[in-house]
Every structure is written in C-alpha cells, then in structure tokens.
C-alpha cells in the first residue's frame, strides 16, 4: 500500500515524507484500513468490490494532511484497481511492495484471479517492455481500457519506441484524455497523428494534421525544455511537406539533445525527403555513430550517397542495410535497385526475390527505379 500511495502523492506533486506515514490494510467482513499521516489518524472501510475507492480516500487524506490535493488525473487512476476479487487486489499490492521476479509473480497471480483488472496487466506490461518484449507487452494490454493516464502515457511511449504503433496510438489517446497536461503524451500523439496523415490530400487528413499541430504546439508550451516536444512539432511540418520548417524545429530539438539517435535519424530523413543530401548526410552519419546497427538509417545513408553522385558508396551502404535488416522488404528493394545501377544484375535479382518473399504481392520492376531514386 505504501508504494501505491506514495506514487499517487508524487504524481500530484504532494511532498510527503514516508517516515511521517504509517498504515495497514486488511480484510474483515470487507476492506478495512488505517492510515496515520503526520500524527493524524484515519480509518476507512469499504465493501469487497470497492477496495479501490478505499485506497483513493486514503491517498486523498494523506494529500490534504500535507496541504495538497490529488487532482482529477490521479483520482481517476485508482479506477484501474477496481476488481471483484479482494485477493487480486491484495496480490497486486503485494507486488508493489516487492521487486523483480517476486513482484511479477504477485502481479501474475492477480491477473489470474481477475483478468479484467487493469492494474496488474499494466504492471506486467511495463516489466515486459523494460526487458525488450514489446510484442508480449502489447498482447497483454490488448482489449483493456485504462483510466490511469500516467501508466497509459508511459506504456504508449514505450510501445511507440518499440514499433507497436497501433496500440501505442490508442494508449496515447487514453493518456491525453485522462490527463491533458501530460506534455510528452500530447507530443507523441501529435507526432503519430502527423505520420498517419502524411502525404494525404483529403479534408480528413488535413484535419488530422491540424489537430496534430495543435497537440505538438501545446506540448512545446508546456515542456519547451524537452526535445521530444519540438521533434513532434517538426514531425508535423514534415508530414505537411514543409521540410524547411521541419528542419528548423529538428534543429531546435537537436540543440537540446544533440546525440539522440532517433532525432538525428528523423532530421536526416527530413532533408532526404527534401532532396537536400548535403544537409542530410552529416545528420545521418551522426545518427549512425550513436546507433551503428540501425538498418533503416543505413538505407538513408545509401540514398544520400546516391543523391550526392556516389553510387558505389550507396551500394556499400545498401548492402550493410540489407544485412542488418534482413526482414525489411524496402531495404532489399533498395539494395536491388542500387546493385542494378552498378551493373550487378544477379545481385539485384537476388535482393528483389528476397523482397517478394517478405512481402508477397509487391511489384518489382526488373529495370530498376522501384523506389523512385533519382540523383541530383
């Protein structure tokens, strides 16, 4: 219980020394609890299905004793503890008081007792994400609705970074709905909206880009010292095709985080889209210094070399990209196109054949030009 309450107070910006807090929770004909904060005691009781309400009231009491209040986003987060199973809630709380494998065992037991209870699933998903198991985390989160906007934001950002775009988008929407003051959730949602609408010309896509720009702009106003807010605003302008303005905001973000690999990659890709290879190349090279095994960025390097009139260097980079991203069909096509340009037809055919295996149904032009590569 202590960790749950301290998390709620921290989220609300309430300063409360844990040494000044004691309490316990138990079951006796329903939920029973006692909490003492700075010498003031509070007893609470609730029915078996209202344990989350009891915990919320305890958190409110502690916040008020410290001269603060929880606020709506924090209050709403307790709804994710709702369960018909008292044992499930007890196991979840026990997990919060444990570490590592012991915590995960408690959360798994809570999940087994009540698969619809959101909190154990978000806790287990966070553990999976931290160990690089994004697909498993996404599977665990599928089909649940979160009231805890803080958890939704953290998980949405983590899944987005791991490439789980669809579920990430849903979680970020839930995060912004629960807590419109979460600047990073606003920024990430804006960036995702922009990327979804990129290249579109219909009214719906224009509306999506307008919404994306509003979200990203609000994020920069709330957290202008975090590079991710400016990167999101850059993403919006890039999606609109305004590469110069996008480059300005990527540059601003890079002043805050000059070595962020994903930011360097996006900034370089922006100038590639603008066919400004001289501006793109140093950004791509810096991104590869930070993340040398990024296959997509090696593909960007190949494109940049081609635009700069060095097809041999482009082919070398494309080969490395295909080797590091063997399941990336676009990189196989790039490899094939550049191999054909170099007069290596057998190498090109082999690369294209692998691309077709990866994405059956794609059309390959045996004369090249499949990716619209054009030198300046």
What's the CATH class of the largest domain, please? Mainly Alpha
Strand order of the largest sheet: 1-2-3
The coarse silhouette is: elongated
Low-confidence stretches: none
The biggest beta sheet reads:
3 strands, antiparallel
Q: What's the mean pLDDT score?
A: 92
What can you see in these coordinates?
The structure is a single chain. This protein has helices at residues 2-11, 51-65, 72-77, 86-96, 100-113, 118-130, 134-141, 149-161, 165-178, 183-197, 203-222, 227-239, 243-256, 261-273, 277-290, 295-307, 311-324, 329-341, 345-358; strands spanning 21-27, 31-37, 40-46. The termini are far apart. The protein has a three-stranded antiparallel β-sheet, with helices on one face. A hairpin with a 2-residue loop joins strand 2 and strand 3 (40-46). The mean pLDDT is 92. Helix content is 66%, strand content 6%. The protein folds into three domains: 2-82; 148-258, Serine Threonine Protein Phosphatase 5, Tetratricopeptide repeat (Alpha Horseshoe), CATH 1.25.40; 259-376, Serine Threonine Protein Phosphatase 5, Tetratricopeptide repeat. Helix 10 runs parallel beside helix 12 and helix 17 runs antiparallel to helix 18. The protein is mostly helical and 376 residues long.
Summarize the structure.
Helices cover 66% and strands 6% of the residues.
Topology:
Layout: H1 2-11, E1 21-27, E2 31-37, E3 40-46, H2 51-65, H3 72-77, H4 86-96, H5 100-113, H6 118-130, H7 134-141, H8 149-161, H9 165-178, H10 183-197, H11 203-222, H12 227-239, H13 243-256, H14 261-273, H15 277-290, H16 295-307, H17 311-324, H18 329-341, H19 345-358
Antiparallel strand pairs: 1-2, 2-3
Helix pairs in contact: 1-2, 4-5, 5-6, 6-7, 6-8, 8-9, 9-10, 10-11, 10-12, 11-12, 12-13, 13-14, 14-15, 14-16, 15-16, 16-17, 17-18, 18-19
């Amino acid at each position: 219980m202590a960790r749950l309450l301290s998390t709620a107070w921290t989220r609300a910006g309430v300063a409360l020394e844990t040494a000044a807090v004691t309490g316990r929770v138990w079951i006796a004909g329903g939920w029973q609890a006692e909490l003492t904060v700075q010498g003031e005691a509070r007893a609470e009781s609730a029915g078996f299905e209202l344990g989350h309400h009891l915990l919320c009231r305890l958190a409110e009491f502690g916040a008020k004793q410290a001269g603060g209040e929880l606020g709506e986003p924090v209050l709403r987060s307790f709804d994710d503890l709702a369960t018909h199973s008292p044992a499930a809630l007890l196991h979840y709380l026990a997990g919060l008081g444990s570490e590592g494998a012991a915590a995960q065992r408690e959360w798994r037991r809570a999940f087994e007792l009540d698969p619809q209870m959101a909190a154990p699933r978000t806790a287990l998903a966070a553990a999976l994400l931290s160990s690089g198991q994004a697909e498993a985390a996404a599977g665990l989160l599928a089909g649940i609705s979160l009231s805890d906007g803080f958890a939704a934001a953290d998980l949405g950002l983590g899944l987005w970074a791991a490439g789980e775009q669809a579920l990430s988008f849903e979680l970020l929407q839930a995060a912004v709905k629960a807590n419109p003051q979460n600047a990073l959730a606003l920024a990430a949602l804006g960036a995702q909206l922009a990327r979804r609408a990129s290249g579109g010309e219909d009214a719906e896509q224009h509306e999506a880009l307008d919404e994306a720009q509003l979200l990203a702009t609000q994020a920069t106003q709330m957290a202008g010292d975090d590079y991710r807010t400016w990167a999101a605003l850059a993403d919006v302008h890039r999606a609109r095709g305004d590469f110069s303005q996008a480059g300005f905001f990527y540059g601003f973000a890079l002043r805050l985080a000059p070595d962020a690999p994903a930011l360097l990659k996006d900034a370089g890709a922006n100038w590639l889209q603008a066919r400004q290879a001289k501006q793109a190349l140093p950004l791509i090279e810096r991104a590869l210094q930070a993340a040398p095994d990024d296959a997509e960025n090696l593909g960007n390097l190949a494109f940049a070399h081609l635009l700069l009139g060095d097809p041999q260097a482009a082919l070398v980079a494309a080969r490395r990209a295909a080797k590091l991203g063997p399941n990336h069909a676009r990189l196989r096509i790039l490899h094939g196109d550049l191999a054909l340009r170099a007069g290596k037809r057998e190498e090109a055919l082999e690369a294209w054949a692998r691309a077709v295996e990866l994405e059956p149904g794609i059309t390959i032009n045996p004369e090249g030009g499949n990716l619209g590569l054009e030198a300046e």
